[in-house]
């Protein structure tokens, strides 16, 4: 039997040091609120304007998010937790799923600086990809990354993503324009990778 | 000043829910048109529902991030198509969606004329920094028209659309403000 990712018994939501979990409406808002006060994180994570958010606002957003998941059925959202102490360290999502075409966009962030560069993001991304391909059976996933997010670019490349589109000067930040890169990974490429 | 709403073959008009819904019913019967223009499954909606949808869009009023037009021919005043611009106001970018539902007007320069008006509006009225669009790789007519309008190919997402049991690529294009201005200067020489 293959001992890699195609084993039915291999847990989808458990990594080596991290696991996926649902939202904790009581505890998570405080923690994510701290992340939103870190402008660097916000700008690495998203192209929307960075803005600090209160725990109360995030609480409402989580409720909205869960409602959207239930109604639109084109979004999966996981919180990333450190296995050692069950602490919330990030979030991972698959969104804008087009079921008839089998494509979707993924997004992932590790919230606080001290949790970065420890391989958590890489583990979580592998889990997210396996979920997209082995559970949702998507044909491909895409991710958009600003050209200044060199850590994300290196990570996506390491996991076999291909730079497919370079939207020239699509972003305006710090008084200059930056390219926005679209990375893509095909299910078939991923399967070859994990079987190798 | 330029006439923003008048090209060589077409003019831009407001979207009028009644007539727009009527032609939409007719256009929806043409699944080839749908598949060239969109990546979602072809569908059919009643004229009543479509009219309500366009009315709702009208009632919402003007939004700073959305601009949509109906396109009519100059010689017969026939409603043949539409285009819409969606703006990212933070990064000063516009996405364009454009279509000619009346297929006898394909391949005769109407689309190119529409795109000319569209870019003129985006760059001289909305003042965006760049305009973007996506298209199917199986739509080479659109690709040529967009290239003619000044768009540059910026990449290709592999196999992201499934039609007729096959996978098809999508192409992504963009034009920057400075590129468009340079083209205008070149044209006027």
Key features?
heterodimer, A: 196 residues, alpha+beta, Aminopeptidase, seven-stranded mixed beta sheet, 6 helices, 35% helix, globular, B: 189 residues, 37% helix
Describe the structure.
The complex is a heterodimer of chains A (196) and B (189). Chain A is of the alpha+beta class and 196 residues long. Chain A has a single domain, classed as Aminopeptidase (3-Layer(aba) Sandwich). In chain A, 35% of the residues lie in helices and 31% in strands. In chain A, α1 packs across α3. The longest helix of chain A is centred in the N-terminal third of the chain and has 18 residues. Chain A is globular, with a radius of gyration of 17 Å. The mean pLDDT of chain A is 95. Chain B is of the alpha+beta class and 189 residues long. Chain B has one domain: 3-Layer(aba) Sandwich (Aminopeptidase). Chain B contains 6 helices and 7 strands, in the order βαααβββαβαββα. Chain B has a 7-stranded mixed sheet with strand order 1-2-3-4-5-7-6, with helices on both faces. In chain B, a hairpin with a 4-residue loop joins β3 and β4. Chain B is globular and about 45 Å long. Classes of the chains: A alpha+beta (196), B alpha+beta (189). Chains A and B meet through β6 and β7 of A and β6 and β7 of B.
Give the arrangement of secondary structure elements.
The complex is a heterodimer of chains A (196) and B (189).
Chain A: E1 18-21, H1 28-36, H2 39-45, H3 55-72, E2 76-82, E3 88-98, E4 103-110, H4 120-135, E5 140-146, H5 150-158, E6 162-173, E7 176-186, H6 187-195
Parallel strand pairs in A: 4-5
Antiparallel strand pairs in A: 1-2, 2-3, 3-4, 5-7, 6-7
Chain B: E1 10-13, H1 17-28, H2 31-37, H3 47-59, E2 66-73, E3 79-88, E4 93-100, H4 110-124, E5 130-136, H5 140-149, E6 152-163, E7 166-176, H6 177-188
Parallel strand pairs in B: 4-5
Antiparallel strand pairs in B: 1-2, 2-3, 3-4, 5-7, 6-7
Helix pairs in contact in B: 1-3, 4-5
């Amino acid at each position: 039997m293959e001992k890699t990712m195609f084993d039915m018994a291999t847990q989808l939501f458990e990594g080596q040091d991290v696991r996926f979990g649902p939202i904790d409406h009581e505890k998570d808002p405080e923690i994510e609120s701290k992340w939103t006060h870190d402008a660097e994180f916000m700008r690495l994570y998203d192209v929307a304007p960075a803005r600090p958010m209160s725990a109360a606002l995030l609480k409402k957003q989580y409720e909205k998010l869960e409602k959207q998941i239930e109604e639109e059925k084109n979004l999966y959202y996981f919180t990333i937790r450190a296995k050692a102490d069950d602490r919330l360290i990030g979030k991972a999502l698959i969104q804008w799923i087009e079921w008839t075409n089998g494509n979707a966009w993924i997004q992932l962030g590790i919230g606080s600086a001290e949790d970065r560069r420890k391989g958590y993001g890489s583990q979580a991304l592998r889990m997210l990809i396996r979920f997209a391909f082995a559970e949702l059976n998507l044909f491909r996933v895409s991710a958009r990354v600003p050209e200044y997010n060199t850590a994300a670019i290196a990570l996506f490349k390491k996991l076999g993503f291909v730079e497919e589109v370079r939207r020239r000067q699509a972003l305006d930040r710090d008084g200059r324009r930056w390219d926005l890169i679209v990375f893509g990974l095909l299910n078939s490429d991923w399967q070859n990778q994990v079987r190798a | 000043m330029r006439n923003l709403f008048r090209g060589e073959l077409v003019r831009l008009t407001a979207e009028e829910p009644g007539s727009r819904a009527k032609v939409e019913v007719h256009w929806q019967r043409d699944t080839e048109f749908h598949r060239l223009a969109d990546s979602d499954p072809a569908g059919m909606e009643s004229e009543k529902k479509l009219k309500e949808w366009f009315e709702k869009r009208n009632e919402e009023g003007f939004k700073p991030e959305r601009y949509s037009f109906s396109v009519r021919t100059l010689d017969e005043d026939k409603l043949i198509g539409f285009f819409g611009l969606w703006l990212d106001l933070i990064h000063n970018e516009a996405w364009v969606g454009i279509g000619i539902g009346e297929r006898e007007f394909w391949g005769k320069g109407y689309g190119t004329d529409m795109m000319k008006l569209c870019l003129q509006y985006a760059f001289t009225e909305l003042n965006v920094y760049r305009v973007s669009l996506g298209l199917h790789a199986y739509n080479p007519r659109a690709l040529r028209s967009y290239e003619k309008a000044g768009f540059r190919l910026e990449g290709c997402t592999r196999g992201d659309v499934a039609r007729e049991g096959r996978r098809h690529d999508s192409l992504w294009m963009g034009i920057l403000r400075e590129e468009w201005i340079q083209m205008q200067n070149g044209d006027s020489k």
